[in-house]
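FIELD: query
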Amino acid sequence: MSRLNINNLTNENEDGSPRISGISTFSSPHYFVPPSGTTAERPSDPGEGMIRFNTDSGHLEYYTGEFWDDVIVANNTLDGGARGVFGPGEAPHGDSIDYITISTLGNSVDFGNLTVARFSGGSGGASRTRGIFAGGQVPSPFSFKDEIDYITISSTGNATDFGNLLVGAYDTDGISNSTRGIINPCTKSGFTLVNTLEYITIAATGNSVDFGDLSHLRRNAGPLASSTRACFGGGSDPSNQDDVIDYVTISTLGNATDFGNLVSKATDTLSGSNSTRGLFGGGETPSLTNKIDYITIASTGNAADFGDLTVARNKGGASTSPTRCVFGGGSGSPTYVDTIDYVEILTTGNAVDFGNLVRGASRVYGSFSNAHGGL
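FIELD: result
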């Protein structure tokens, strides 16, 4: 092995640095180490083509001349990668389902449609093979739906009927481990809040069954889970925001137990987790926020500050892998957004741009992945 150390390099007249012309190449059978640092440590006056390793995102990035972009190829072929799914939004997207490959970057891709177009529904969780959508609202003729649909996550195509909730409801919240999905119907006919929890067995089909109750009445609490514990954070009653985090043990039946509190009161957060850490992004406080809170699911206690979303919003979706949480769509100010951004769950810091929803700007009702923290 040879090493060349140069302390000073000048041109032949010793009045400046040398000029290198022609083609210069670097060749090694091993690797080279580029400069690295956090997002905050990016050069203040970068030049076009500069390349560095961003320790916040875990990616190589380069300066385009206008902004820093990741050196990564967008890939939504889903050839075994973790898949994130975003459910329907407001009309005309009331039956739309999009998907992404969580480990890549790029815009979402159309997956298919629900069995019945509806909005303000939610997810009933997902296993590694099957994802659940539950409940919702249709405007004409106005009604709250009790339909539960499912999709096979590794494929594309329209949803299939799974069964029914105990009651027609909207603003449903749901989460799961690998076998059981837990759903909070939130709001039933007459716009009456409910704190009941229902459960399903994801690998089967059939109607939901009573599980227990949340600690108090509220809607739009953010759900997330490990393989043993499901948490519901924040919400509203419906006029006042809430900061309470409840949890249940997924494999049992019974009422929720107090976990702690969010950093601040918020409803309609974008929530997701890996097996150890849960994130609550954005929400309404009552103004829209871009703040992200996090908790350690196996413990109890109050949430802590994680960082910020790229856009303040609520009523979006979140899909997770063991390392990454991707936030998609939602209600911004003053309009809906098609933004998809992400964070690395094991770090703290601000979100980075991922891409956009293929359907365009939209709320997202129901989201999940085949690699979330409950699996």
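FIELD: remark
The two ends are 47 Å apart (CA to CA).
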